[in-house]
Amino acid sequence: MSDCHAVVTALLERGVTFLGPAAEPPWGGEVRAFARDPDGHLLEITSPT
């Protein structure tokens, strides 16, 4: 999957908790979503807009 929203949806269905909704940063050009793994590491999922 290359679409951040689709990946977030698929991971939510599998129980992953995100820090907030997938969103475009103020400077644009991409969509980002953040989650933490079980050890607390920050994970970022991005795709171009």
Tell me the name of the CATH class.
Alpha Beta
Strand content: 25-35%
Poorly predicted residue ranges: none
Largest sheet: 2 strands, antiparallel
What is the N-to-C succession of helices and strands? HEE
> Please, what is the average pLDDT?
93
**CATH architectural arrangement:** 2-Layer Sandwich
Strand tally: 2
Q: State the helical fraction.
A: 10-25%
Major sheet: order of its strands? Answer: 1-2
What's the tally of helices? 1
The assigned structural class equals alpha+beta
What is the overall silhouette? globular
Question: Taking Cα atoms only, what radius of gyration do you get, to the nearest Å?
Answer: 11 Å
> What is the CATH topology assignment?
Signal recognition particle alu RNA binding heterodimer, srp9/1
Distance between the termini: 14 Å
Total domains, how many?
Answer: 1
